[in-house]
Amino acid sequence: MSKLIDLRMGLFLAALFIVTVLVPIASTLDEGSAVAIPSYLIPLMGKYLCYAILAVALDLCWGYAGILSLGHGAFFALGGYAIGMHLMREIGARGVYANPDLPDFMVFLGWDELPWFWYGFDWFPFAAVMALLVPGALAFVFGWFAFRSRVSGVYLSIITQALTFALLLAFFRNEMGFGGNNGLTDFRDVLGFSLSAPSTRIALFVLTALALAACLVIAKAITVSKAGKVLVAVRDAESRTRFMGYRVENYSVFVFTVSAMMAGLAGALYVPQVGIINPGEFAPANSIEIVVWVALGGRGTLVGAAIGALVVVAVESWLTANFPDLWLFALGALFIVVVLWMPNGILGLVEKLRFRRAKAPAKTEAPA
Amino acid sequence: MLLRPYLRLLALCLAMLTPLAASAQTLDELVARLPDGSYDDRAAVVAEIAATGDPRALAVLEALLEGELEQRNSDGRIVIVGGTRRAPTGTDALTGEELGELGRRATERIRVNNSLRRTIRTAMGVMTLRDPDPARRLAAAEAALRSPAVEQLDALDAAMQAEELDYIREAQTLAHAATILASDADTETKIEAVGVIAGAPALTVQSTLNAYRAAEDPALAEAVADAIDAAERRQALWGQAQNLWFGLSLGSVLLLAAIGLAITFGVMGVINLAHGELVMLGAYTTFVVQETIRTHAPEYFGWSLAIAVPLAFLFVGAVGVAIERGIVRHLYGRPLETLLATWGVSLILQQAVRSVFGPTNREVGTPDWMSGAFQLGEMTVTWPRVAIVVFSLTVFFGLLLTMRYSAMGLQMRAVTQNRAMAANLGIRTGRVDALTFGLGAGIAGLAGVALSQIDNVSPNLGQGYIIDSFLVVVFGGVGNLWGTLAAAMSLGVANKFLEPWAGAVLGKILILIFIILFIQKRPRGLFPQRGRAAEG
Amino acid sequence: MSAQLFLDGVHRSFDGFKAINNLTLSVDKGDLRAVIGPNGAGKTTMMDIITGKTRPDGGEVLWNMSTDLTRLDEAAVANLGIGRKFQKPTVFETHSVEDNIRLALKAPRGVFATLFHRSDKAEEARVTALLDQIRLTHLRTEDAANLSHGQKQWLEIGMLLAQEPDLLLVDEPAAGMTDAETMETAELLKSIAGQRTVIVVEHDMDFVRALDCRVTVLHQGSVLAEGSLDHVSARDDVIEVYLGR
Ligand SMILES: Nc1ncnc2c1ncn2[C@@H]1O[C@H](COP(=O)(O)OP(=O)(O)OP(=O)(O)O)[C@@H](O)[C@H]1O
Ligand SMILES: [Mg+2]
C-alpha cells in the first residue's frame, strides 16, 4: 500500500518546518530589520494554522469517506470552549469583579456557585482532554445515530448543519453557563505564562505547527491503511462495501469521531491565540466556509486542504481589510468556480500541469 | 352640600329624558348663560347644554374643561382661546368663526373648579353616549365600563334604549351592569348584573369584577368568584386555541418558505442553498414596488402587494432560471457540489443586495386593508396573519394543481422520473429543468412578498429560513407536497405549544433536536417516496 | 433435511405488488443451482432477501437450518460466509484492480483490524493468484473505473472468490461477456461448486446448459418448476411463461 509520506506531504512538511523555525527567529529580530515579524502577527499566523488543521480534519471525513459535514465548526468551537473555560478559571480573582470563585459573567448574572459542568476545568490536563473528548463524544453519539440509520449524503449535511445551528442557539443563552452572547474572553495566562508575552505567543505558534504536522501524518496514516481504503470504498459504493462484510457505520463513526477530535484540537489551539471564543463560532456559515477551503485545495489530498485553508484565510484577511464589500463576492465566486471548473482543486491543477509536461496520460482523480 | 351633585344629576337626567324641555332653550342661549352665576349655576347650565344633544356642544364643553373658554369683554361673545399667551387668538365657540388676534386682557376666562370639572366630564360622557358617530358612541360606552360612575346610570339606560346598533348596545349593557355594581342597588340586582358581565370577554370580566371579589355580601362575592372562575377557564381554553392559531400561522410561514424548496429539492433533487436569498429577493421586490408607488402614485399604495406578487414571482423566477442555466445544470446528480455552488450564489446575492440597498432593515409597509384585527371569542385575530395563512394555502394548492393537471407539471414529473425516456418522447428536458427550477424560485419570491409583512427586510432575511425550510421538506418526506404541508403545520404548532413552556429559543432547539432524531429514525421523512429508485 | 440454505414461505410485496410470493427453495451444501425466470420474476429480489438488503413481509430464510437470515443486516450475512455478485457490476472505481481484490480478501472486517493491518507475502501471493485466475494481471494497478463492462464482471467474480464464501450468489455473470468468456465463467463456477455452494441467476440458456446443474424456474415470485434444464424446458407451463405472453 501507498507510502505514508509522499512527495507533496514531504514538501509541505518541510515548508512547515522551515516556517516554524524561521518565524520565531524573525520575531526576535530588531524592529528595523526588513524580515522582522512583529510579535502581534504571530498569533495571527497561529490562527491560520489552526484553520489548516480544521481543513485537514474535514478533508479526512469528506475527501475520503464522503461524509460532507456542515457542522465541523461546532466541533472546533466545542474544543475552543473547553480550553476557554480553563483560561477563564486561570483568571482567578483578577477579573473585574475580583471574585476568586466565579468568572466575571457569572457574577454579573448573579450566580453564586459554579455550575457542575465547570468542575475540573481549573486543572489544565482535564480541560485539554475535554477539548478532544467533548467534540469526539458528540461526533460519536451523533454519528452512531446517523450512520446506523443510514443517513448519508445531503441529508447528513443538512442535519449536521441543524446540529451546529441548535448549538448556536443554545450557546447564545446565558442560562447555558458559557457566557452567552459574549462568550469567554479577557484571558490572562495559560499555565502561568502570560498570553500577551511574545515567548508564549511563539510557543503557541510552534505548538500549532506541530499539531498540524501531527494531524497530517495521522490522517495520512489512516487513509493509506486498509481502513482508509475501506473508507474510500464506502464513499464510492456504500452498499457494495456492506455486502463484503464491512460494517459501514462503524467505519463512518470512526472517521467522523477522529475528524471531530482534530477539529476540537484546532479550536483548543485557536482560543488562546485569538483570546476569545463566542457562540458566533457555531454559525452555520463558518462550517460551510471550511468546505470551500478543502475544495479549493483539493479534496481528498489532506495537504491540499491545509493549503486551501491558508490561501483562503489569507485572502480573506487582506480583502476584508482593504475591500470589505468584495469579500463575500469573492468567497461566493470561489465556491462556484471551484465546483464548476476545479473539481480537484489547486493540487489537481498542479498535478495536471506536471502530467502534461511529462506527456504522461492523465490519470483520473477521484470523481466528486 | 352632599345633595348638590344629586340635584345636578337630577337636572341632567331630567334634561336628557325630556327632550322637549331641552329644546326649549337653544345651545346659543345656554352658552351665553355660562359666564354668569356661581359654580353650581354653571353646573346646571352644563347639564342643560349636554341635554341639547347639539353636536357643537361637545367642543364647547371640552374648551370649558380645558380652561380655554372665555368671554370677550367688548361684546360678551363666548370664544375659544388658542394661540400663545402673548398673542391669544380666538374662535367663536358656536359658529367656529375665526376672530383673529384678541389682544391681551380683552377676554375673561370662565372659571371651573374640580367639582365642576367632574360634572363636565360626566356630561361629556353622556353626550358622547348619544353621539351620532357610532365609533364615538362605542368608545364612550367602553369608557363608561372602565370607570363606572353612578351618575351615568340613567344616561346609559336611555342610550341603550335609543341604540340601534347591536354591538354598541352590548357595550352599553356591560357598562350599565358595571355601573349597577358600583351603585348602591340591592344584592339581587347586583347579582343579575354580575350575570350580565360574566358573558363578556374574560379580560373584561376579570378587570370589571375583581374589585367586588371581597364584596361584603357573601352571595354577591360568591357570584363574582364564580363568574371570574368561569372566565378564567374559558380563557385557558381559548389560550389553547390561540396557540393553535399562532402555530398554524407560523406553519404557514414555514410552508411558504418551504414550498419552493419542495419543488427544487423535493421534485428535482437539487439542493439549493440560495433558496433563502431568493425569498429575500422577493421581499426586496416588494420594497422596490412600494417605493415606486410611494413616489409616483401614492394613492395606489393599497395595491402595492397585489402588484408585488406577480412581479416578485416573475423576477425571482427569472433569477432562478439564470441560476439553473448558469450553474445548477452542470451539476445534476452531484448533490454535494450543487450544495456548495448554490451556497456561493447565496453569498453573492446577499452581498449584492447589501451593496445596493445597504445592510440595514428596509421599511416595507402594510396596506390599510390588511392591518387591524378582529375578536374571535377570547382571542384576537390580526388580519396580516389571516392573510398569510390564506396566501400560503392558496400558493400550496395552486402549485399542487399545477403539478397534477397542467402540461408543464406532467412534463416536470416525466423528466424527474426518467430523464432519458422523457427526452426520447420529445420533451425538451433542459427547458423543463429550467422552468421547474424557475417555478421553485418564483414561489420563493412569493414567500418573500409575504415575509416582508412580518419580518425585517434585510440582506440576512433568507438565512433565517433556509435551515427551517430544509428541515420541513426533509421531515415531510422529500418529493411529497402533502408531506411538506403536514410537516410545516405540525412544526409550527409544536413550536408555539413549546414556546410558553420552554421559551422561544429552547423550544426551537428542542424542535431541531427532535427533527435530527426523527430523520435518523426515518431518513425519508413522514411520507417517504416509495419505489426502487428511492432506495438508490 | 440438511439444506444449507432454506427459504420457507417467503413473502414480499412492494406497494401491493407481490414480488416474492410464498417462495420455498432449498439448496444443499456444495450444490450448483441455476435460477431462471422471465424479467421481473423476483430473482434479484430473492437475492436481496437472502443477503439482508430487503426484509421479507413473512417467511424464514434459514442458514444451516439454524440462523434466520432475515433478522440480520448485509454485513452480518456477508460475515456468515455469503458472498454476492450484483446484476449491475459494482466495483470500487477509484481503487486499483488489486486493491479491489485486497479489500475483498477474507480477513477480519473490524475497523481496528483493518486500521493496523499489514499485508504479508501470503496475502500478496493470493492476490496475484486471483488476478491470474480472472486474467487481469496486466491491469493490476489500473483504476477499476477504466475497466470495460466485461472486465468489471470478471473483477467482481474475482472479488467474490477472494471473499472465500460458503455460498456464492451470482446475478447474471455472463452479461457483457463474449461467448468464450461465458463458457469460461461456467467452467469456473462448476469448479467452485462442490466445496462451496453456488446459486446463479442467468437468462443465457447456453450458459445454463453449460452449467449442467439443477434448475429452478421462478415465476411471479414463486417456484414454477425445478429439475434438470431439459426437464423444465419441456414443461408446458414453463414454455408458456417464457413465450406465451
Ligand atoms: N425496492 C423495490 N421497490 C418496488 N418494486 C420493486 C423493488 N424491488 C423489486 N421490485 C419489483 O419486484 C419485481 C421483481 O423484481 P426483480 O428485480 O427481483 O426481478 P428479476 O427476476 O431480477 O428480473 P430481471 O431478470 O429483469 O433482473 C419487479 O417487478 C420490480 O419492479
Ligand atoms: Mg434481476
Automatic annotation (TrEMBL), chain A:
<feature type="transmembrane region" description="Helical">
    <location>
        <begin position="291"/>
        <end position="315"/>
    </location>
</feature>
<feature type="transmembrane region" description="Helical">
    <location>
        <begin position="52"/>
        <end position="84"/>
    </location>
</feature>
<dbReference type="InterPro" id="IPR043428">
    <property type="entry name" value="LivM-like"/>
</dbReference>
<dbReference type="GO" id="GO:0015658">
    <property type="term" value="F:branched-chain amino acid transmembrane transporter activity"/>
</dbReference>
<feature type="transmembrane region" description="Helical">
    <location>
        <begin position="251"/>
        <end position="271"/>
    </location>
</feature>
<keyword id="KW-0812">Transmembrane</keyword>
<feature type="transmembrane region" description="Helical">
    <location>
        <begin position="327"/>
        <end position="350"/>
    </location>
</feature>
<feature type="transmembrane region" description="Helical">
    <location>
        <begin position="123"/>
        <end position="147"/>
    </location>
</feature>
<dbReference type="InterPro" id="IPR001851">
    <property type="entry name" value="ABC_transp_permease"/>
</dbReference>
<dbReference type="GO" id="GO:0005886">
    <property type="term" value="C:plasma membrane"/>
</dbReference>
<dbReference type="InterPro" id="IPR017778">
    <property type="entry name" value="ABC_transptr_urea_perm_UrtC"/>
</dbReference>
<feature type="transmembrane region" description="Helical">
    <location>
        <begin position="153"/>
        <end position="172"/>
    </location>
</feature>
<feature type="transmembrane region" description="Helical">
    <location>
        <begin position="202"/>
        <end position="222"/>
    </location>
</feature>
<dbReference type="Pfam" id="PF02653">
    <property type="entry name" value="BPD_transp_2"/>
</dbReference>
<keyword id="KW-0472">Membrane</keyword>
TrEMBL record, chain B:
<keyword id="KW-0813">Transport</keyword>
<dbReference type="GO" id="GO:0006865">
    <property type="term" value="P:amino acid transport"/>
</dbReference>
<keyword id="KW-1133">Transmembrane helix</keyword>
<keyword id="KW-0029">Amino-acid transport</keyword>
<dbReference type="Pfam" id="PF02653">
    <property type="entry name" value="BPD_transp_2"/>
</dbReference>
<keyword id="KW-0472">Membrane</keyword>
<dbReference type="InterPro" id="IPR001851">
    <property type="entry name" value="ABC_transp_permease"/>
</dbReference>
<keyword id="KW-0812">Transmembrane</keyword>
<feature type="transmembrane region" description="Helical">
    <location>
        <begin position="244"/>
        <end position="263"/>
    </location>
</feature>
<feature type="transmembrane region" description="Helical">
    <location>
        <begin position="383"/>
        <end position="403"/>
    </location>
</feature>
<dbReference type="GO" id="GO:0005886">
    <property type="term" value="C:plasma membrane"/>
</dbReference>
<keyword id="KW-0732">Signal</keyword>
<feature type="transmembrane region" description="Helical">
    <location>
        <begin position="500"/>
        <end position="519"/>
    </location>
</feature>
<keyword id="KW-1003">Cell membrane</keyword>
<protein>
    <submittedName>
        <fullName>Urea ABC transporter permease subunit UrtB</fullName>
    </submittedName>
</protein>
TrEMBL record, chain C:
<dbReference type="GO" id="GO:0005524">
    <property type="term" value="F:ATP binding"/>
</dbReference>
<dbReference type="GO" id="GO:0016887">
    <property type="term" value="F:ATP hydrolysis activity"/>
</dbReference>
<keyword id="KW-0813">Transport</keyword>
<dbReference type="InterPro" id="IPR003439">
    <property type="entry name" value="ABC_transporter-like_ATP-bd"/>
</dbReference>
<dbReference type="InterPro" id="IPR027417">
    <property type="entry name" value="P-loop_NTPase"/>
</dbReference>
<dbReference type="Pfam" id="PF00005">
    <property type="entry name" value="ABC_tran"/>
</dbReference>
<keyword id="KW-0547">Nucleotide-binding</keyword>
<dbReference type="InterPro" id="IPR051120">
    <property type="entry name" value="ABC_AA/LPS_Transport"/>
</dbReference>
<dbReference type="GO" id="GO:0005886">
    <property type="term" value="C:plasma membrane"/>
</dbReference>
<dbReference type="InterPro" id="IPR017781">
    <property type="entry name" value="ABC_transptr_urea_ATP-bd_UrtD"/>
</dbReference>
<protein>
    <submittedName>
        <fullName>Urea ABC transporter ATP-binding protein UrtD</fullName>
    </submittedName>
</protein>
<dbReference type="InterPro" id="IPR003593">
    <property type="entry name" value="AAA+_ATPase"/>
</dbReference>
<feature type="domain" description="ABC transporter">
    <location>
        <begin position="5"/>
        <end position="245"/>
    </location>
</feature>
<keyword id="KW-0067">ATP-binding</keyword>
